[in-house]
Structures are given as structure tokens and as C-alpha cells.
């Protein structure tokens, strides 16, 4: 759990990020004109089609959950900037269709709007302010979440071999569950902190270390949680277009409001090894991922393991 002081700091960060983002959008064109720099407007987009096959079962093989399905994703956006400053606007939508044997909802979609401004301070330092709005997001605590988030990122890259990134994010969430006052949606809010270190060994050749801590608090006891995670990944080129990326992640999640018999809160631990293949040639993006999820929990229903395979083909323009 984050302390009250950290939450106060991140609430202040939320206010600063909103203010800075508004100032950045208003000031960027004027700055470009005054400095007579070469600003450019670059639209972009992506279309992606994918298939996911997943299944997990409890230790006694009595409860099997099937997550097979397919999805279609579309993304459009524009960047406006120069060598020092970039403004980015983006819209992204995913349509998910579950196969006949899948457990849970038959189909759903997720929408995301993003606005951000990135500023290079010098050759080593870069900062970013970003705002995002999600509709129908699947989250740790709910399968139907609307979210508004703001974040600030600081990046330090003293040389191409070493890059350090720190991001703080504040999230306001609303759940379509009818569990709020008078049958309204319940709400939640909380902070997330991400730290990443990337060691570059060569072209498309990296080792990444990632740490994350996050928390959501809510008046609805079923929605609050805290999570800490750590991961390591290794990206290695096989050819100029093909790369392989093995990874390992550890996640620890606590649900203080989800009490088990005996009044103990639910505690989950997940260990996830995975391997990913990426084939990027021209404007085409083909990706395949295989992971196995080992989940341990003091809730027997959540004490399970299973696989997840995914394949996608995308085109960027």
C-alpha cells in the first residue's frame, strides 16, 4: 500500500500534469514560430488483426476457464513537432469477439484517446506529459472500467547503451457495476509508478528491467487493490526483420476488501514466463507470443495455471 504522503504527492503531480499539458498545447505553435524552427505535421495509423488462445485450470482440474477469441484493432493519430518538441494526438479502438467455447462475455470493445507533449531538455534528458481516456477497459479489479489518467515521464539517456525512465500516473476509474449509491457506478482512484532500465547491446538488441507499483482505492471493497511487479526481458535480432524476446514477470496482488473465510484478504502471486517473435518488414507487423501463467492464491478458485498464445498481423501507415 502507498502511504498518504505519496498519494498527496501524486495528486499534486496530477494537477501539475493537467496544467502543463494545457500550457504545452497552447504554447507549442507560438514557440515554433518565434524560433523559426522546422515544425512538421505527421499523421499515422495502424490496423491489426489477432487471435488469442488461452486456457487455465485449478489444481484439481475442476474449473477450466477458456479465453479463446479474436480481435480487430484500429489506431489513427497525428504528431506535430520538431527535433525538441512533439505534440501527439491519438485514437485507438479494439473490437474483441470471443469464440463459442470461451468463458465470460461474448464480445466487447475498448476505446482510448491520448494527448501528450514531449520535450527534449538536452542530449540526455527528456520529459513528457500525457493524458488518456479509456472506455470499457478490462482492469485488474473489473471487466468493465472507464478511466481517466494523467502521467508525467522523465527519461535520462546519458549514452545509447543506457536509458532510465521514470513515470508517475494518476488514475480515476468508474465501474459499470451498479454497486454505487442508489445503484450508480462505483468509483476508484489511485497511483501507479513505473521504473524502467534499458541496456542496449546493439541494433534491436536490448535487456530491459521493469518495476511497477500501483494501487486503487474505492468505497466499493471489491474494487480496491494494490500490486507490485517486476519483469526482465531480452530482445535479440535473428535477421534484419525478425527478433525474439523471451521475458519473465513476477506479480504480487493484494485485495484488502475481498475477504476469504476467516477474514483473510485475498493475496495472489503470478509468475509468467513468455517468449515473443516479432517480424517487422516494411509497413507490415507480424507478432506471435506464447506465455504460461503460474498463479498461486489463498483463494482456491484463483490458485491455477494455464497458457496463452496469440498471433497478430498489422499494417502501419
TrEMBL record:
<keyword id="KW-0998">Cell outer membrane</keyword>
<keyword id="KW-0732">Signal</keyword>
<dbReference type="InterPro" id="IPR036942">
    <property type="entry name" value="Beta-barrel_TonB_sf"/>
</dbReference>
<keyword id="KW-0472">Membrane</keyword>
<feature type="region of interest" description="Disordered">
    <location>
        <begin position="167"/>
        <end position="191"/>
    </location>
</feature>
<feature type="signal peptide">
    <location>
        <begin position="1"/>
        <end position="28"/>
    </location>
</feature>
<protein>
    <recommendedName>
        <fullName>Salt-induced outer membrane protein</fullName>
    </recommendedName>
</protein>
<dbReference type="GO" id="GO:0009279">
    <property type="term" value="C:cell outer membrane"/>
</dbReference>
Amino acid at each position: 500500500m502507498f502511504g498518504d504522503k505519496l498519494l498527496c504527492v501524486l495528486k499534486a503531480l496530477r494537477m501539475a500534469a493537467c496544467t502543463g499539458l494545457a500550457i504545452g498545447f497552447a504554447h507549442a505553435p507560438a514557440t515554433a514560430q518565434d524560433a523559426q524552427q522546422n515544425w512538421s505535421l505527421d499523421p499515422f495509423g495502424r490496423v491489426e488483426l489477432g487471435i488469442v488462445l488461452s486456457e487455465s485450470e485449478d489444481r484439481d482440474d475442476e474449473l477450466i476457464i477458456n479465453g479463446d477469441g479474436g480481435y480487430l484493432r484500429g489506431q489513427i493519430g497525428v504528431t506535430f513537432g520538431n527535433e525538441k518538441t512533439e505534440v501527439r494526438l491519438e485514437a485507438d479502438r479494439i473490437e474483441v469477439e470471443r469464440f463459442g467455447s470461451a468463458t465470460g462475455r461474448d464480445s466487447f470493445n475498448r476505446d482510448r484517446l491520448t494527448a501528450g507533449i514531449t520535450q527534449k531538455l538536452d542530449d540526455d534528458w527528456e520529459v513528457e506529459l500525457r493524458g488518456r481516456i479509456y472506455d470499457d477497459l478490462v482492469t485488474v479489479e473489473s471487466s468493465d472500467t472507464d478511466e481517466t489518467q494523467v502521467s508525467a515521464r522523465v527519461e535520462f539517456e546519458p549514452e545509447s547503451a543506457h536509458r532510465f525512465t521514470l513515470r508517475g500516473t494518476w488514475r480515476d476509474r468508474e465501474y459499470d457495476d451498479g454497486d454505487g449509491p442508489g445503484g450508480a457506478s462505483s468509483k476508484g482512484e489511485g497511483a501507479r509508478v513505473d521504473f524502467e532500465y534499458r541496456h542496449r547491446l546493439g541494433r534491436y538488441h536490448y535487456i530491459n528491467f521493469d518495476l511497477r507499483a500501483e494501487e486503487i482505492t474505492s468505497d466499493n471493497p471489491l474494487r480496491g487493490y494494490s500490486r507490485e511487479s517486476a519483469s526482465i526481458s531480452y530482445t535479440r535480432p535473428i535477421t534484419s526483420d525478425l527478433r525474439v524476446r523471451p521475458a519473465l514477470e513476477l506479480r504480487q496482488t493484494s485485495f484488502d476488501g475481498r475477504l476469504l473465510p476467516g477474514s483473510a484478504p485475498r493475496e495472489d502471486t503470478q509468475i509468467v514466463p513468455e517468449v515473443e517473435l516479432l517480424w517487422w518488414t516494411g509497413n507490415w507487423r507480424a507478432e506471435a507470443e506464447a506465455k504460461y501463467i503460474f498463479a498461486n492464491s489463498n483463494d482456491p478458485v484463483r490458485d491455477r495455471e494455464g497458457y496463452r498464445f496469440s498471433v497478430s498481423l498489422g499494417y502501419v501507415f
